């Protein structure tokens, strides 16, 4: 692990306006002065209860939401995202092969043969059989779908990936397989992750460093050992106690 | 895996049969549809004249084939205009939302408030009556709002679904997202809407031609023939009955397809 950065989030504040013509306008702050870095090669966990703004932070990092203050600096190209629900992240109208090839078609630099080759390589990396190529997403299991989602996210060969609760919709055994796969892919493809989860056990297994978020603020950050063995903040202690 | 769908199968068989007859009618009819005295006047249905003859001794079966062809072509062209333009409007307003969406949809509401036949009448009177292409244009324009409404809802509901978000992250253009990523997933609402639109177009064309503002001679359509048949209802009831029956079967067959598609959509969902 180096000190080279893949992402720098600097003093990001974000919120939304409520109300309008008839009601009084109210500003709800979702993220408050959030700053952190993702270093090259690391898996950075982001934990906190649901509703603390983790997903909003992910959307802000990927530019789907504009921050009201602060900035997000990317040091890699085309960061991708893996979503929690593997049922809605794959287009039901197409075959797995089409879905995997689509990012390459959009990228537009490869001919058909090269695209097919890359799709097969990626399929092997996520450990799916080639029979899956002809299937529709609806015909796959949850674990297989999540593997296809991961393959789709990685096929443009990004260097940074945001995973938003990627295993929380899966069975425990499948969870372990997907986590193992994510770790493997990080090593083989030289990736860095921001791994969002409310499940501290999963974060403990997978991550190198952890951010603890509460009500739109980062309340504590450190290595997994620091956070899990020597939590400083009362909120972190509370979270850990709840996960016991 | 997919369950057999009785409605869809029955509708497809009936419609395919009628479509085959109609296409045959473009190339060949038992008699020249406008030739007079190919048989006796007001002859009842027989093997020589399957649907009998009219007041000029013309073969009604040949005329029905030809007329159904005109009606069929008008309905398809009408639905094509309505579906293509309506889907384009629905896709843009549903996906992008905002002020344009609001404005267009309120305009849409205003248009929908008029009975479609009345609206088509107004357009026909501006374009000039009696021409086949004006009927198509008028009905096509009238059909745009209903398609726009249906597709707008579908596009709006899919614009923030995860696979669309991820296509955006991949760098897909807006056009590609709309046409390649979202459009195929709106088929479960678009296809039934097309079948309903087709039936409404058949009935609207028939009503307009019956009223004398649609297709006029030398073109014949089912609606025009129905108005002709009315004047000889007592002498040649088979004329009105066979013409009406063809309209009913056409609408029934396509209606079954629509119902089948809707049921299949519900199963998938």
Strand and helix map with partners:
The complex is a heterodimer of chains A (244) and B (269).
Chain A: E1 5-18, E2 26-39, E3 43-47, H1 54-61, E4 69-74, E5 80-82, H2 96-107, H3 112-125, H4 142-154, E6 160-164, H5 172-189, E7 192-197, H6 200-206, E8 209-214, E9 217-223, H7 224-229, H8 234-243
Parallel strand pairs in A: 3-7, 3-8, 5-6, 6-7
Antiparallel strand pairs in A: 1-2, 1-4, 8-9
Helix pairs in contact in A: 2-3, 2-4
Chain B: H1 6-27, H2 60-96, H3 98-113, H4 116-127, H5 132-158, H6 162-170, H7 174-182, H8 187-210, H9 222-230, H10 237-268
Features:
heterodimer, A: 244 residues, alpha/beta, six-stranded mixed sheet, three-stranded antiparallel sheet, 9 strands, B: 269 residues, mainly alpha, 10 helices, 73% helix, elongated
What does this structure look like?
By secondary structure, chain A is an alpha/beta fold. Chain A has helices spanning 54-61, 96-107, 112-125, 142-154, 172-189, 200-206, 224-229, 234-243, and strands at 5-18, 26-39, 43-47, 69-74, 80-82, 160-164, 192-197, 209-214, 217-223. In chain A, the strands form 2 sheets. In chain A, strands 5-6-7-3-8-9 form a 6-stranded mixed β-sheet, sandwiched between helices. Chain A has a 3-stranded antiparallel β-sheet with strand order 2-1-4, with helices on one face. With 269 residues, chain B is mainly alpha-helical. Helices cover 73% and strands 0% of the residues of chain B. Chain B is elongated, with a radius of gyration of 22 Å. At the A-B interface, helix 2 of A face helix 6 and helix 7 of B.
The residue ranges of chain B in which pLDDT falls below 50 over 5 or more consecutive positions are none
- Mean pLDDT value of chain A: 91
Q: What class, by secondary structure content of chain A?
A: alpha/beta
The biggest sheet of chain B amounts to: none
Biggest sheet architecture of chain A: 6 strands, mixed
The rough form of chain B would be described as: elongated
Total DSSP helices of chain B: 10
Number of strands of chain B: 0
Q: Rg of chain B, please?
A: 22 Å
**What is the N-to-C succession of helices and strands of chain B?**
HHHHHHHHHH
Q: Return the string of H and E elements of chain A.
A: EEEHEEHHHEHEHEEHH
Strand adjacency order, main sheet of chain A: 5-6-7-3-8-9
Range of strand content of chain B: under 5%
Multimer state: heterodimer
């Amino acid at each position: 692990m180096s000190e080279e950065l893949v992402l720098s989030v600097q003093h990001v504040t974000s919120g939304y306006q409520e109300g309008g013509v008839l009601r009084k306008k109210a500003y709800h702050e979702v993220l408050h002065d959030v700053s952190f870095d993702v270093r090259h090669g690391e898996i950075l966990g982001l934990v906190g209860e649901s509703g603390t703004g983790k997903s909003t932070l992910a959307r802000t990092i990927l530019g789907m939401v504009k921050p009201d203050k602060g900035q997000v600096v990317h040091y890699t190209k085309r960061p991708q995202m893996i979503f929690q629900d593997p049922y809605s992240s794959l287009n039901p109208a197409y075959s797995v092969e089409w879905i995997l090839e689509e990012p390459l078609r959009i990228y537009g630099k490869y001919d058909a043969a090269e695209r097919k080759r890359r799709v097969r390589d990626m399929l092997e990396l996520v450990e799916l059989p080639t029979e899956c190529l002809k299937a529709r997403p609806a015909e796959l299991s949850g674990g297989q779908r999540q593997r296809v989602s991961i393959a789709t996210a990685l096929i443009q060969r990004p260097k940074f990936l945001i995973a938003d609760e990627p295993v929380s919709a899966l069975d425990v055994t499948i969870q372990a397989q997907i986590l193992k796969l994510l770790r493997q892919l990080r090593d083989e493809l030289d990736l860095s992750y921001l791994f969002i989860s409310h499940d501290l056990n999963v974060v403990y297994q997978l991550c190198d460093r952890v951010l603890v978020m509460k009500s739109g603020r980062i309340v504590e950050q450190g290595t997994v050992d620091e956070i899990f063995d020597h939590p400083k903040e009362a909120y972190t202690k509370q979270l850990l106690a709840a996960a016991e | 895996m997919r369950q057999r769908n009785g409605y869809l199968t029955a509708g497809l068989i009936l419609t395919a049969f009628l479509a085959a007859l109609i296409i045959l009618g473009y190339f060949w009819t038992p008699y020249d549809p406008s030739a007079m005295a190919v048989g006796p006047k007001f002859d009842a249905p027989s093997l020589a004249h399957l649907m009998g003859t009219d007041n000029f001794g013309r073969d009604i079966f040949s005329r029905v084939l030809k007329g159904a062809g005109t009606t069929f072509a008008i309905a398809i062209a009408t639905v094509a205009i309505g579906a293509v333009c309506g889907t384009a409007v629905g896709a843009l307003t549903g996906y992008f939302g905002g002020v344009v969406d609001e404005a267009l949809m309120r305009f849409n509401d205003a248009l929908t408030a008029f009975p479609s036949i009345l609206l088509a009448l107004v357009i026909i009177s501006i374009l000039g009556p009696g021409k086949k292409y004006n009927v198509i244009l008028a009905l096509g324009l009238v059909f745009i709002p209903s398609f726009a409404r249906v597709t707008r809802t579908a596009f709006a509901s899919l614009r923030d679904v995860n696979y669309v978000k991820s296509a955006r992250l991949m760098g897909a253009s807006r056009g590609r997202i709309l046409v390649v990523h979202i459009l195929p997933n709106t088929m479960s609402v678009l296809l039934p809407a097309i079948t309903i639109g087709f039936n409404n177009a058949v009935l609207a064309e028939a009503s307009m031609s019956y009223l004398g503002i649609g297709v006029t001679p030398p073109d014949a359509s089912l609606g025009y023939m129905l108005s002709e048949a009315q004047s000889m209802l007592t002498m040649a009831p088979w004329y009105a009955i066979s013409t009406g029956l063809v309209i009913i079967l056409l609408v029934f067959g396509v209606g079954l397809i629509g119902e089948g598609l809707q049921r299949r959509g519900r199963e998938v969902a």
